[in-house]
Automatic annotation (TrEMBL):
Matches recorded under PROSITE patterns: DHAL
Swiss-Prot/TrEMBL keywords: Kinase, Transferase
Record lineage: Bacteria, Pseudomonadati, Atribacterota, Atribacteria, Atribacterales
Protein name: PEP-dependent dihydroxyacetone kinase, ADP-binding subunit DhaL
GO BP: glycerol catabolic process
Keyword Transferase in record: yes
Domain DhaL: 8-210
Listed NCBIfam families: dha_L_ycgS (TIGR02365)
Gene Ontology cellular-component terms listed: cytosol
Keyword Kinase annotated: yes
EC number: 2.7.-.-
Primary enzyme class: transferase
One Gene Ontology term of the molecular function aspect: glycerone kinase activity
Origin superkingdom: Bacteria
Length: 215
């Protein structure tokens, strides 16, 4: 298996992300029911439909992955996804800046992309690990990719490590007290529920990373 990722592979990953979110739309709504408005699945799916539209509209004669991600960032900021739109928008734009000019990603570039993505969420949302948010999924993903890269692992092993960390991060939110957003008003009652944003972030991370190594 090649240890590089093509522009087309990145571009095609966004169809996989949207499909994964649509498959789990009701599940995400149900997760949101005890601690939110029961509409997280609808909101995140709608936002990534805008992402897919931006990907489809990207000029066919261009292959700059960084520019593509920045276009996605701009699209999602204006997607109407409440707080989620600016968070993902900033993350994609920061990720695009980190790999600007690249038409092919190396293992190191993938790490740079994901670290910048996570830092974008952290900076825009002023969040940290343990607050029961999407960051509890996204930060461990970037961290696991960095660790696997530092250990000299091939791309496939890096991807597997990133997906496993994303899943563990998502599941960890079940036992957390919510300190952010509407669910924070529930206090102790927020414990015992997986955070919907952490769950949708897992589906996004999983679909994105899998698409990079699967045909």
């Amino acid at each position: 298996m090649a240890d590089t990722i093509s522009f087309n592979r990145v571009k095609e990953s966004f169809a996989s992300i949207l499909n994964r979110l649509e498959e789990n739309r009701q599940y995400l709504n149900d997760l949101d029911s005890p601690i939110g408005d029961s509409d997280h699945g609808e909101s995140v799916t709608a936002a990534f439909k805008k992402v897919k539209e931006a990907v489809d509209a990207y000029p066919a004669d261009q292959n700059d992955i960084g520019s593509l991600l920045q276009s996605i960032g701009k699209a999602i900021i204006f997607s109407g996804g409440a707080a989620m739109g600016p968070l993902y928008g900033t993350a994609f734009m920061d990720a695009g800046t980190a790999i600007c000019g690249k038409s092919v990603l190396t293992r190191e570039d993938l790490v740079a992309l994901m670290v910048a993505f996570a830092r974008g969420i952290e900076r825009r949302g002023k969040v940290k690990i343990g607050e029961k948010t999407m960051f509890d999924t996204i930060y461990p993903t970037a961290e696991a990719l960095q660790k696997a890269f530092d250990e000299g692992k091939p791309l496939s092993d890096m991807i597997n490590a990133g997906i496993a960390a994303a899943k563990q991060g998502m599941e960890s939110t079940k036992d957390m007290l919510s300190l952010r957003g509407r669910s924070s008003r529930l206090g102790e009652r927020s414990i015992g529920h997986i955070d919907p944003g952490a769950a949708s972030s897992y589906f996004i991370m999983e679909a994105f990373l899998k698409s990079l190594v699967e045909g």
